[in-house]
Amino acid sequence: MSQQIPHIFVAHSKLHGRGVFTGVPISSGSIIEICPILYLPKEDIPALQGTIINDYYFEWDEDLQAGALALGYGSIYNHSFTCNATYQVDMDADVLYIHALRDIVAGEEITINYNGNPEDDSPLWFDTK
Fold first, then answer.
1. I need a labelling partner for 22 at 20 to 30 A (CA). Which of 29, 85, 111, 121 fits?
2. In Å, how far are 37, 74, 89, 91 from 40, measured between CA atoms?
3. How many CB atoms lie within 10 A of CB 109?
């Protein structure tokens, strides 16, 4: 199952390369996208180190040793410590939910905190400045 709010699109981002934006207002709490995932077994994760995929997959499984490449726009949302959206994993259904933390205005980039918790400002594996 894949679903997304109409009028979300990928465009150049001031944050980093490409990002996901909305062309219409999105209300707080709305599901922005339901992304099916491509499961990456933990045995395959070491082979991803040093590849472009390494920056796009989510940690998966109960022990977070496997990975998941979110389809749709799921793996393209940029990180922000002041994000306007968050993600929720459903490992039973193999999907990732992206939903709005606050009202998002038309033209705004949709961002998530890569740490999972929107309030977690722990350092990431890349420079966020």
1. 121
2. 9, 15, 15, 13
3. 19
Contact of 26 with 104, CB cutoff 8 Å: yes
Rounded distance between C-alpha atoms, residue 18 and residue 29, angstroms: 24
Cα separation, 123 vs 109, in Å, equals 22
The single-letter code of the amino acid at 14 is: K
Structure tokens at 72: 């749709």
Read off the pLDDT of residues 21-71 as tens digits, 9 standing for 90 and up: 999 999 999 999 999 999 999 999 999 888 988 877 888 888 888 999 999
Backbone phi and psi for residue 123, each to the nearest 5 degrees, phi listed first: -60, 150
Please state, in angstroms and rounded to a whole number, the distance separating the CA atoms of residues 23 and 40.
32
pTM reported for the whole predicted model: 0.82
Tokens found for residue 124: 């990431």
